[in-house]
Specification:
The complex is a heterodimer of chains A (about 625) and B (about 375). Chain A has about 625 residues and is an alpha+beta fold. Chain A is built from 22 helices and 23 strands. Chain B has a three-stranded antiparallel β-sheet with strand order 1-2-3. The chains are: A alpha+beta (about 625), B mainly alpha (about 375).
Chain lengths: ~625, ~375
């Protein structure tokens, strides 16, 4: 009974109190309403005028974008400015007539008109759209004199970004471009949009994109009172802009240029790393594109040309090109054999030129038809014996092979500070079940032993794996940025090397494999030609990977240049204390020893001697294999 | 034919069941508000956010209808676990939260990031209402003190993040529970005095510089026209220039020309006000007042103490959000980063508010089932 009274009492109390609350709500809303009356009726004229004139106006100060330097201070990307002509299309009744008139004063080409149309489609109504960029001094003077003829056309200073090396660094540095609606949404999401007020450009690819937050800086504002004509009459204050940070990269511009030249007419990729810290010394993907084209919106024709080219210049082969590693996998397989106790250095095999899983079964052929005779571990690397690794792989089994090679970063992203890296593929039975719902066949293990079949790696991964051998098992994360200067306090910072993992490998095993790799570049080795006359020691391994299946006779299905094998070469130097580790991949280059290794040699010559040695390792023209010692991934089917 | 008819019947029955516990008056008011919201967000973002906004609304409405189905006697069992989980997450944020804009508010769960303080907006009044419900037979000051501790703990943690706006609003929601439960007037008077004494201390030792700046700017926006004052100057210009009838839908210049930042989120009211004018504001205030009145009426009709207190607090908190936001945008209150409930763009707030109304509808509709 008392409970009932109590709850009834509480309910009654609730009623009283909620009535009070309702009165409170109404009272407070009345205050709010009075405020609205004040703003919207009494002060309406004043605010209306303010709104009309946008009297409080913020003029954004776009911060200078950070400069990119190579390791020696060479400028790779920098800010610049020039005069541009801009048009507000809605204010011009007859655009073609304007172009005709304007054409008398400044040069206007079809490209400019195409770009104008594209930018106009992307822009917002009543936004100024550039028709010409970077006017010459003469053009500036002529337009200034005749400005009165062109209402609605304005000449403004515009920031610019220039990439002095053009295509050479396209896949590393990337480019900036106009801020798209998508970029805007992403920036708003990240709470960074205010830093971009008034800004026009944002990093779209490469380092420009990855380090956007550092390079961009923070937009500042001049806060000014303006009259009804939009002219500033009084400054109310200023928030200074914060400049973007200048970045110094590990990359060596000279090295990169030499690498690009060394590829000659070939397509492919080269990645060079500093094994002492993971610094990225060169990252080349050929062909490249001219990043300068993108800065103000590439015109449709140029874009179509790049996008539809069979050579795929927009593909970053160094990070996104996945290729069978071919025979470059052999030193790692040899290490696996030693570490897992499957092989002793002295173990040798009589190579008859093929390997079979069972007597009379399918013959997995060596690239040399009659075999290499007696082959031990050292020789297997030097002459790139396939039979040796067919057998080793078969004994090892795919699971152990998968687990061992995975440690070298094959089949996983290196973590380099660029977007879009692919992970390649290190297959095993579980993967195949997942992917194809089929069991793993023993024959697939056999060809995996020479880096064929499902196994795929990017040039970046091969370079990282090579670094692991060069470094006695220490794998650093590849880093692009070496140092940066914080514009807020002007202090310089150096990037700390990051160890991804340290492999536990026996020193004597490493010594054996390194010695064999060194012999590869010496007389009798598969890259002997590329090693001729080198004044420093270097270790390497050639590779040749099929692009299309061979026919039964062992010949190429098609003689077409795009069906030729990919040529690969991995190397590090000097052998005892390496300062560079690299991977070269030449698409349809034919043989690793004849095409890829000479490119590596030129890069190493630059690295150690500062110049290319004339005479050594001349670049053969694309065509039939030359007479340097070659190998061939000649397994039937 | 037969099957078609059956399907139609099933659908009709399903819809009827979904709306069975939804209070038609409250639902109508909410839908009116959401309509204004869609119009304003569409205008403020030139349509860019409209689709996302409508999806948020749809999700939130479904969540609300779902919650109307849960009877209050079951809801009360969730009060304690929800509170404990929320508190644990808040502690998690304190230890390992993600820092966004200088505040540690988000907890990264691997799959998604959550803001535990949002959860506490409902969990705190629920826990307090449940506690007082269980002690209702002999309620004394001691119980009020313990209920206050339930409130103070999360509020303190959220204040430390720092997120002053949310912590004060949760404090308000907890206070509403105590107030509606019959907290003695003299205790409230004492609290007001205490608040007066603590404020100067808080100013000196607790508030961060940016928070002080916001308060100072309120009194003189022109002193900092670029930073903290910029929002207020631009939003008052937007409101003031709207006049009696407004500039018309889609005609607001302040938001369009990017003078008004965050025109679709916290400052959406400025866009609304610029385009619909004083009359529009009157309509908006009318809808809010009607929702609050209806909400309190429904709360009073709830027969259990838990439902009554929780619903009353939810309603008054909803009002507080609206009041604080409109006060902030029109330059009466400091900028505290509170969305305008059911109008601002933003999924979390939309869902939280409508979940609250789901509880409200459930409690009022299921009253006959509750024994006490």
């Amino acid at each position: 009974m008392s409970q009932l009274v109590n709850t009834e009492g509480a309910r009654e109390e609730f009623r009283r109190r909620s009535q009070i609350a309702v009165w409170g709500v109404l009272g407070l809303f009345c205050i709010l309403f009075l405020r609205f009356v004040w703003l919207q009726l009494i002060e309406h004229d004043r605010y209306s005028a303010l709104s009309e004139n946008n009297r409080v106006s913020l003029i954004p100060n776009i911060p200078p974008r950070g400069v990119l330097y190579d390791r020696n201070g060479v400028v790779l990307a920098s800010g610049d400015w020039g005069y541009a002509l801009e048009v507000i299309p809605e204010k011009i009744p007859d655009l073609p007539a304007l172009w005709a008139q304007l054409g008398e004063v400044v040069r206007i080409e079809a490209v400019d008109l195409r770009r104008f149309r594209r930018l106009r489609e992307e822009g917002r109504p009543f936004e100024a759209v550039p028709i010409r960029q970077r006017l010459t001094e003469v053009e500036v003077a002529r337009f200034a004199a005749q400005r009165y003829r062109f209402p609605g056309v304005e000449m403004r200073t515009r920031d610019w970004r220039s990439y002095p090396f053009g295509p050479t660094f396209s896949h590393l540095i990337g480019y900036i471009g106009r801020i798209s609606q998508k970029d805007k949404l992403a920036l708003q999401e990240a709470g960074r949009w205010s830093a971009y007020r008034g800004a026009q450009y944002i990093g779209k690819a490469g380092v420009e994109k990855r380090y956007e937050a550092w390079l961009h800086g923070q937009t500042g504002f001049d806060h000014v009172e303006v009259d009804s004509g939009g002219r500033a009459i009084r400054s109310l204050g200023q928030t200074p802009a914060v400049a973007g940070a200048n970045l110094t990269l590990h990359v060596d511009a000279g090295l990169q240029q030499v690498a690009e030249a060394a590829f000659g007419p070939y397509r492919g990729a080269l990645v060079a790393l500093d094994p002492t810290n993971g610094g990225l010394l060169a990252l080349l993907s050929k062909p490249g594109y001219d990043p300068n084209l993108f800065v103000d919106g590439i015109d449709a024709d140029a874009w179509r040309g790049l996008n539809e080219s069979l050579d795929r210049p927009l593909l970053n082969r160094a990070l996104r090109g996945v290729y069978p590693p071919g025979s470059t996998i052999k030193p790692f397989m040899a290490l696996a054999g030693l570490e897992l106790g499957l092989r002793k250095p002295s173990d040798s095999l009589a190579d008859l030129g093929y390997f079979s899983l069972s007597a009379g079964g399918h013959r997995y052929r060596d690239w040399k038809k009659d075999g290499h005779g007696t082959v031990d571990l050292h020789k297997s690397i030097v002459i790139s014996c396939d039979t040796y690794y067919y057998r080793l792989a078969h004994e090892m089994g795919i699971e152990r092979m998968h687990d061992f090679l995975l440690q070298f970063g094959l089949g996983e992203r290196s973590g380099v500070d660029l977007d879009g890296e692919l992970a390649g593929l290190m297959p095993n039975a579980a993967w195949k079940t997942r992917r194809f719902k089929q069991p793993w066949w023993p024959g697939e293990t056999v060809i995996a032993g020479i880096g064929q079949g499902y196994m795929l790696a990017t040039p970046m991964q091969l370079a990282v794996a090579t670094m692991a051998i060069a470094n006695d098992g220490v794998i650093y994360k590849p880093q692009i940025v070496r140092a940066w200067r914080d514009p807020k306090d002007g202090r310089s910072h150096t990037a700390a090397p990051e160890v991804v993992r340290t492999l536990n490998l026996k020193p004597e095993h490493l010594r054996l494999v390194k010695a064999a790799m060194q012999a590869v570049t010496q007389p009798g080795g598969t890259a002997a030609g590329a090693g001729t006359g080198a004044t420093y020691t270097f270790a390497g391994k050639t590779g040749t990977a099929q692009v299309v299946a061979m026919n039964a006779a062992g010949g190429s299905v098609s003689g077409s240049a795009r069906h030729r094998d990919n040529a690969l070469f991995i190397a590090f130097a000097p052998v005892d204390k390496p300062t560079i580790a690299l991977a070269v991949m030449v698409e349809n280059g034919g043989h690793g020893g004849s095409t890829a290794a000479p490119i590596a040699r030129k890069v190493l010559d630059y690295w150690f001697l500062g110049q290319t040695t004339p005479g050594a390792a001349a670049m053969p023209a694309p065509g039939p294999a030359s007479d340097v010692m070659t190998e061939e991934g000649d397994h039937a089917d | 034919m037969q099957i078609d008819r059956t399907v139609a019947t099933v659908v009709r029955e399903g819809v009827r069941a979904a709306f069975r516990h939804a209070d038609p008056v409250l639902l109508g008011l909410i839908l009116a508000l959401l309509t204004l919201s869609a119009l304003t967000v569409a205008s403020a973002t030139s349509g860019a956010y409209l689709a996302g906004h409508l999806i948020n609304m749809g999700v939130a409405l479904v969540a609300m209808l779902f919650l109307t189905q849960v009877p209050p006697q079951r809801l009360i069992h969730f009060a304690a676990p929800l509170y404990v989980v929320g508190l644990a997450l808040l502690l998690g944020v304190t230890v390992a939260g993600d820092v966004v804009n200088g505040s540690r508010r988000w907890l990264n769960l691997g799959v998604t990031r959550i803001q535990p303080s949002e959860l506490m907006r409902l969990a705190v009044p629920m826990a307090m209402a449940a506690y007082l419900h269980y002690r209702q037979e002999h309620l004394s000051n001691r119980h009020f003190v313990l209920a206050f501790l339930l409130l103070a703990l999360p509020v303190g943690l959220i204040m430390r993040q720092p997120d002053l706006g949310t912590s004060l609003l949760i404090l308000a929601s907890g206070f509403f529970v105590l107030f509606l439960a019959g907290l003695a007037w003299r205790v409230m008077a004492g609290l007001v005095l205490l608040l007066g004494a603590v404020t100067p201390l808080a100013w000196m030792f607790v508030l961060h510089d940016y928070q002080k700046q916001r308060v100072l700017t309120l009194f003189d926006p022109a002193s900092d026209p670029l930073g903290a004052g910029y929002h207020i100057i631009q939003s008052t210009i937007a409101i003031g220039s709207g006049g009696l009838f407004g500039k018309g839908w889609g005609q607001g210049t302040q938001a369009r020309l990017d003078f008004l930042p965050e025109g679709h989120t916290d400052f959406v009211f400025a866009v609304y006000s610029e385009e619909f004018g004083l009359l529009g504001n009157l309509v908006l205030l009318g809808i809010y007042a009607a929702i609050v009145t209806r909400g309190l009426t429904l709360s009073y009709n709830a027969s259990g103490m838990f439902g009554r207190l929780l619903c009353g607090a939810i309603t008054l908190t909803f009002f507080t959000y609206a009041l604080v936001n409109m006060g902030m945008v029109s330059g009466l209150l400091p900028v505290v980063g509170v969305p305008l409930p059911l109008v601002s763009y933003g999924g979390t707030s939309m869902v939280t508010v409508l979940l609250g109304f789901g509880i409200l509808m459930s409690v009022s509709s299921n009253k006959s089932l509750v024994k006490t």
